[in-house]
UniProtKB/TrEMBL annotation:
Protein name in the entry: GUN4 domain-containing protein
Residue ranges occupied by any GUN4-like domain in the UniProt entry: 98-237
InterPro entries for this protein: ARM-type_fold, GUN4-like, GUN4-like_sf, GUN4_N
GUN4 N-terminal ARM-like repeat domain segment(s): 13-90
Length: 246
């Protein structure tokens, strides 16, 4: 007798799984993203493919594919998946590396909830911590402090924004847009929704704090003291490597 709970599920054979595994492992990032729903439909066997993928990419898992795989396992209602994530990724999918002992866990927690307004404020706080006691007290940055930020820390902050926004936000995204407009800030600001004509977007209500925002909209940088801080940030050597792959 057919169990009505499983009557509509596909009959996934070992050959089906083997074919899906091969397509996923050999596919491009875009192709892998398209295959994840098929792996979900394959049940526990499909989840195993995603778990193997995450283990293999654990040394550098800050990609959209890894994030989607992690997100899928987290919401799969599977004891095996839950135990896997708790064992291998207890602090989330992005390695929270810091050369100066900064704890980026609070930022990750806010981004994980997609509380982008609070995450934006936390980002400034963490960057001030990175700059030192004087910056923490004044609550803003000098461009010379930004120039001396460790690559590892900036990449950690960027990777958190990138993966939890599904590739839409982050300094690396802003860097690519800035290069695309020839480093022209007059073109850059409207492109990412910080200015409309002669009018600056008003903080906080004028900004869009969800994924409907323009690409590169977040995180923010204070322009009241000129462009030297954001110019130092967008030209930092942290972006000499490519942004996390899509």
């Amino acid at each position: 007798m057919i169990d009505p709970k499983t009557a509509d599920l596909p009959d996934t054979t070992s050959n089906d799984i083997a074919a899906l595994r091969f397509k996923f492992e050999s596919g491009s990032p875009a192709g892998q993203l398209q295959l994840i729903p098929e792996l979900i439909q394959a049940g526990e066997s499909g989840l195993e493919v995603l778990m193997e993928f995450l283990l293999q990419s654990k040394s550098n898992p800050a990609t959209l594919v890894a994030f989607k795989a992690y997100q899928t396992l987290e919401s799969a209602n599977s004891k095996v998946a839950d135990e896997f994530l708790q064992t291998h990724f207890p602090n989330g999918i992005v390695p929270l590396n810091s050369e100066r002992g900064i704890d980026y866990t609070p930022l990750q927690q806010l981004l994980k909830k997609q509380d982008f307004l609070s995450a934006d404020r936390m980002t400034l706080q963490k960057m001030c911590e990175l700059a030192g006691v004087d910056a923490v007290q004044r609550k803003w940055l000098y461009f010379t402090e930004v120039e001396n930020f460790p690559i590892k820390d900036l990449q950690t902050i960027n990777n958190l924004w990138f993966v939890y926004s599904e590739g839409k936000f982050g300094f690396g995204v802003q860097h690519e847009i800035w290069l695309g407009v020839g480093k022209n800030f007059l073109k850059f600001w409207p492109k990412i929704g910080w200015k409309n004509g002669n009018n600056w977007t008003r903080y906080p209500n004028g900004f869009t704090w969800d994924l409907s925002a323009p690409k590169g909209h977040l995180p923010l940088s204070n322009q009241l003291r000129g462009v030297r801080v954001i110019a130092s940030l967008l030209s930092h050597p942290a972006w000499s490597n490519k942004s996390p792959e899509s």
